[in-house]
Design a protein that fits this description.
The structure is a single chain. This protein has 5 helices and 11 strands; from the N terminus they run H-E-E-E-E-E-H-E-E-E-H-E-E-E-H-H. It is of the alpha+beta class and 246 residues long. It folds into 2 domains: 115 residues, 3-Layer(bba) Sandwich (FAD/NAD(P)-binding domain), CATH 3.50.50.60; 88 residues, 2-Layer Sandwich (D-Amino Acid Oxidase, Chain A, domain 2). The strands form 3 sheets. Strands 6-7-8-5-9 form a 5-stranded antiparallel sheet, covered by helices on one side. Strand 2 and strand 3 form a beta hairpin.
Length: 246
């Protein structure tokens, strides 16, 4: 199975080898265009100019571009990791290294990592977590999926935001010349956005619109977006009931 972190590091090394410069912990505070040139102002003070900008903020979209964050529901995806499984247990849990998900309304996804830990993820509350209890619903599911793991300890808990669009498809937007926006990974960004990134790179390098797998569409906010946490929470509660309360 592909390990996402190792794969991301490999992509970063390839980008650096090709001459790219990566700046982490450098949020963009403003975008402005004059003629054919964009000015990108960073939160640390310095600015840079470029002919093309690609905006890929997904579940962490703010107000950098008008109305963009209103086009998605930024749901939290919660994950847990067990302690490394013993050799005996590892042979009985996804022994072929399968990366799996189920068919519940509130989808669960799970796999073994390179240390032999079982990783399992699913939906969580929309607010930021307040303590280990916010992951308890996932920890209860592990022995339901794999009874031999009853009583196992958990070493790690974390969460992050995923961007869900109205039609559950990724969206590309090109609201101004030289600006391309990619948003809406639906929690499946590792495979989906790796391929999308390759297409965007061809588009930027060659100015080839045919390279894009999705035609750019207008930025269209979700109806009543200000209430999205309320109606999304209601949908989650209904789906959880349909899933048998798990």
């Amino acid at each position: 199975a592909v390990q996402p972190l190792a794969y991301a590091r490999g992509l970063a090394k390839a980008a650096l080898a090709a001459g790219a410069v990566l700046h982490t912990d450098t949020p963009v505070a403003g975008l402005s265009r004059r003629g054919t040139t964009w000015t990108v102002r960073t939160g640390r003070g310095p600015s840079l100019t470029t002919e093309r900008v690609v905006l890929c903020t997904n579940g962490y979209s703010g107000d950098l571009w008008p109305r963009l964050r209103q086009t998605i529901i930024a749901a939290n995806s919660f994950q847990v990791a067990t302690v490394p499984l013993s050799d005996n247990l590892r042979r009985t849990v996804l022994p072929e290294g399968q990366v799996s998900s189920d068919t519940r309304k509130l989808l669960l996804y799970f796999r073994l990592d390179h240390t032999g830990r079982l990783l399992l993820g699913g939906r969580g509350p929309f607010r930021e977590p307040r303590g280990a209890a916010d992951w308890a619903h996932l920890e209860r599911i592990v022995p339901k999926l794999f009874p031999q793991l009853a009583g196992i300890d958990f070493d790690h808990r974390w969460c992050g935001r995923v961007a869900v669009t109205r039609d559950y498809l990724p969206h590309l937007h090109a609201p101004e010349p030289g600006l391309l926006i990619d948003i809406g990974c639906q929690g499946r960004g590792v495979g989906l956005q790796t391929r999308m990134g390759q297409a965007i790179a061809r588009f930027v390098a060659r100015d080839d619109a045919d390279a894009l797998p999705v035609a750019p569409s207008p930025i269209t906010p979700l109806p009543l977006h200000g209430l999205h946490r309320l109606y999304a929470a209601a949908v989650v509660a209904w789906y959880r009931l349909q899933d048998g309360g798990l």
